[in-house]
């Protein structure tokens, strides 16, 4: 964990202490669109809408119920939020118009900031690789991203993963849709430093606001 | 006729040598014939995609998208911003609407944007390429330049998720949107009834949860076969890549023999407008449609 993350966690821990037994309030104040959770009427429409539904331990409906029941650890360490494909089925179907996708993303992000995501959660790991890749140059470099993804579980597993996907990689290269040139140069923004500064500033502003809550 | 001008946001997948580069190729002839001029937004950045939320915070993701909006507003004033990628469009439009609605977010965003020497006033509208075709050009307008009919070709119109939800094309239903079928008819081909029209392909989870996503993809491709389709057509870069690329993996694992071509609507239009295989970016497809190649080869 980086120093800035550690510092942020200390701030977060102080802020969180204030909610003690009121997890719903914590979610309302600290999770993206969390203030809408209380609007859920438990109809179950969203639970039947997730494409990877059979693999979710807790559907959005269940997660919202658990938040109200104060099950903080179960919710934040659930890997269900990480099964969201961002298909937006739930959003257009929910009779109460909860921004379910945003809440799921927000919960995933919040759990990640607090370091409560189960270790090795693949979507979390890939989300991190993706974000790091994008912050480096302002644009996503698909080749470096794929390589990082194959090697995220270590060198030996990486070689295995890369070999398993070799056929796909080669056919994409043949079709000029995966460029080996990306490894040495590749696409990037001119104002990389401006982008990095602006992203750092955004985090600073958010911490300032969250700190004020503590 | 004066060309219609738009601020163009290509997105990472449409860059040269990237997974959606053949989409970028195919829209050139299409836009030329439809008198659409796309002016690339200078120094645009990644939208954060659907998976950016894991690491990127709410404001960080807003700011990323606001930077592109601000660049469009400053450099290409008065032009709607257009993206061909549903994920880019969704992220940008969501950001624009949120900033419009919440003054405090706008203030925070502009404080961060200042670090990159920019300011966003909130005047830009974020649109999808398909909206431009359907709303600004219209189906009659799309039909006008057709010189080669794609007669007899049976096509499954696969709309997928993010072109369709949460925003979608105005006036269309989320569960059974019709515009893609109408576009297929516009080029003289036949849209088949396709029950997996708006099913999710797994999105970015194709990388992290391959087994689960490949089940989605298998259902989509098999439904296309069951309904007699000879190819699938889609408006989405991620759908196109996922549904085309993983068929060989599924065949290896499940003993199936899936080999269904997956094309962009723009590739169909480009061929119907007289483009050859190269102009339509067919060389970027891994699974070819013999029939479409033949039509593209006719002069
Ligand atoms: S669809 Fe909406 S109201 Fe129904 S359970 Fe899900 S979140 Fe609650
Ligand atoms: S957007 Fe996420 S939570 Fe909503 S239906 Fe799709 S997978 Fe489920």
Strand residues, percent of chain B? 5-15%
What is the radius of gyration of chain A computed over CA atoms, rounded to a whole number of angstroms? 20 Å
The shape of chain A, in one word, is globular
Q: Major sheet of chain B: size, sense and barrel closure?
A: 4 strands, parallel
Q: Which chains share the greatest interface? A: A-B, 64 and 66 residues
- Low confidence ranges of chain A: none
User: Which CATH architecture of the largest domain in chain B would you pick?
Assistant: 3-Layer(aba) Sandwich
Number of helices of chain B: 12
Give the structural class of chain A: mainly alpha
Terminal CA distance of chain B? 26 Å
> What's the total number of strands of chain B?
8
Q: According to CATH, what is the class of the largest domain in chain B?
A: Alpha Beta
In the CATH hierarchy, the third-tier topology of the largest domain in chain B is known as Rossmann fold
Query: How helix-rich are the residues of chain B, as a percent range?
Result: 40-55%
Mean pLDDT of chain B: 93
What would the CATH topology of the largest domain in chain A be? Fumarate Reductase Iron-sulfur Protein, Chain B, domain 2
CATH architecture of the largest domain in chain A: Orthogonal Bundle
Summarize the structure.
The complex is a heterodimer of chains A (214) and B (299). Chain A is mostly helical and 214 residues long.
Labels describing this entry:
heterodimer; A: 214 residues; mainly alpha; Fumarate Reductase Iron-sulfur Protein, Chain B, domain 2; 2 domains; 11 helices; 57% helix; 0% strand; globular; B: 299 residues; alpha/beta; Glutathione S-transferase Yfyf (Class Pi), Chain A, domain 2; Rossmann fold; 4-stranded parallel β-sheet; 8 strands; binds iron/sulfur cluster
